[in-house]
Amino acid sequence: MSDNERFAAAQARAAAAVSCEKVVLPSGLTVLCRTMPGYSSVHAIYATAFGSIHRQFTLDGKPVTLPAGTAHFLEHKMCETPQGDSFTFYAKTGASANAFTSYDRTCYIFSATQKIDENLDILLGLVGKPWFTKATIAKEQGIIGQEIKMYDDSPDWRLLNALFRCLYTDHPLRDDIAGTVDSIATLTPQLLYSCTRAFYAPSNMVLSVAGKITLEQAVEACKRNGLYRARPAHEVVWDVPAEAGPIARKEARFTMPVNKPCFGVAYREPPLAQGDLKRELLLDMLGDLVVGGLTKLYRKLYDEALVNPEFSGDFIAVRGACAVAFTGESEAPQRVTEMLQGEIERMRTEGVDPELFLLVKNQMYGELLGDVETVDDAAEEAAAACLKGRTLADEIAALAELTVEDANALMKTALREENRAYVQIDPQ
Questions:
Q1: Residue 269 DSSP one-character state
Q2: Ranges for the Peptidase M16 N-terminal domain (predicted)?
Q3: Do the beta carbons of residue 265 and residue 275 sit within 8 Å?
Q4: Orientation angle between helical segments 116-128 and 215-224, nearest 10 degrees
Q5: For the chain, which domains are there?
Q6: Element holding 85 (H helix, E strand)
Q7: C-alpha–C-alpha distance, residues 60 and 197, integer Å
Q8: Strand, coil or helix: 297
Q9: Alpha helix ranges (H) inside 261-329
C-alpha cells in the first residue's frame, strides 16, 4: 500500500470521527452538535458570517455603507442588554464566556459544566434581541477607543496591518478590525440595526455545540428563543471586488519600542474561487514548505541566529483577498528576506521535496484531528467550516488528495517577487 493509499484509508476513518449531527431549522439557522461521551463540559458558539470586511451591502434594495470597525463594535453592543451586561448573567451560572470579531465572522461563546439550558438561553437571547441607543453607543465608543489604542501598542498587530496596507489599495482587509476612533464615531443606532437585520438573520448564522449535550437539547433552546419558526427573509447582497494591477506599496518602515527589528514579507495572491478548498490548503501549506521547522532554510536561519523560533509563515483568505506572509524578529531582516526569496526561487525551479511535502501534509492532518479532540475546538472548528460552506470531513478529504505535483504547480505562480511587500519595525 502506497503512502497516499494509507493516508486515504486513515482519512476515511478520521472523517467519520469528526462528523457531527446537523439540522437546518425552518428559520434558516444551522445547528451543529457533536455529542462527546465521557466529557463533563459543554462548549457553544453562536456565529455569524459578518466581519470587518463587510463594509458595503444592499438590504432590501437599499445601499448601506459602514465605517471601519462596525462588526467589532456591534459585537460589543450585542453583549449589552437593558437588564445589564450579558457577562454578568454568565457569572451567575458559573459559565465562562467570550466573544470575538475577525475579518469575516463574529462569534459569541460560552463554556460550562452546569445549567446548560440556562446558558444557551443567555447566548441565544443576547444575540437575538439587539438594543441600541445613542447614549449606550456613545459610551461604547469611548471604551473601544481605549481598546484601539491598546492595539496600537502591539508590534505584531501593527506589522500585519501594515503589510495589508501595502498589498491593497481599497480592500477592507487593509483596515484594522476595530476601526479607528474617528471611524466608529460615525456609528448610529440605524446603521447597527441595519447590520443586525442583514447579517444576524438566522439563515446567516450557525449554532455549534459540543460535549455533554445532544442535538435535541440545542434545538429546544432555539425553540425557546424564537429561532425555530420560519420568518420573512431579507434580501442582502454584498461583495468585495478583487484588486487588479500592482500592489499599493512595496515597502514601509516605522519605529516602535521593540527590542530588535520586527519584519514581515507578504505576497498578494489571487483571491480563492468559491469552494476551491484544494488551492486553499496548498496555500496554507506554503509557510511550512518554505520556512517551517522541518526545512533546511529554517535550520540555517536558526543556526546562524538570524531568526528566533517564532519566525514562521501564515496565510489568510477572505472574499476578494488572499495573502501569504512570513513574519518574525531579526537583527538582519534584509538578509533573511533575501534568503527567503532565494529559497522560493529554488523551489520554483527544482520543485518541492517530496519527503518534506509528506511530512507537512501529515502535520496538517494531525492538526485537523487535534482540533476536534477538545470540546471547545470541536465546536468552534465545526462552526468555522460551516460558515465557509463545508465540513471538517470535507477538509480532511481534500487534504488526503493533495500531491507534491499539486504543490509544484502552485509554486510556478505563487509567491512572486513583483507581488511582494516588505515592512520593518525598528526599535525607537
A1: -
A2: 68-180
A3: no
A4: 50
A5: 21-238 (3.30.830.10), 251-427 (3.30.830.10)
A6: strand 84-85
A7: 10
A8: helix
A9: 277-291, 296-303
* Torsion, Cα of 226, 230, 234, 236 (10° steps): 90
Q: Taking a C-beta distance cutoff of 8 angstroms, is the pair 29, 205 a contact?
A: yes
Q: What is the pLDDT along the chain (428 residues), one digit of tens a residue?
A: 666 666 566 555 555 556 789 999 999 999 999 999 999 999 999 999 999 999 999 998 999 999 999 999 999 888 777 676 778 899 999 999 999 999 999 999 999 999 999 999 999 988 867 878 888 888 888 888 888 888 888 999 999 999 999 999 999 999 999 999 999 999 988 999 999 999 999 999 999 999 999 999 999 999 999 999 998 877 899 989 888 889 999 999 999 999 999 999 999 999 999 889 999 999 999 999 999 999 999 999 999 999 988 899 999 999 999 999 999 999 999 999 999 999 999 999 999 999 999 999 999 988 888 777 888 889 999 999 999 999 888 888 899 899 999 999 999 999 999 999 999 999 98
Task: Give the Cα separation of 253 and 245 in Å (integer).
Answer: 23
380 secondary structure, DSSP code: H
Distance from C-alpha of 420 to C-alpha of 325, rounded to nearest angstrom: 9
Strand partners, 78: none
What's the DSSP call for residue 419?
G
Which residues sit opposite 111 in a β-bridge?
A: 43, 96
What grid cell was written down for 315? 496565510
Are the C-beta atoms of residues 267 and 326 closer than 8 Å to each other? no
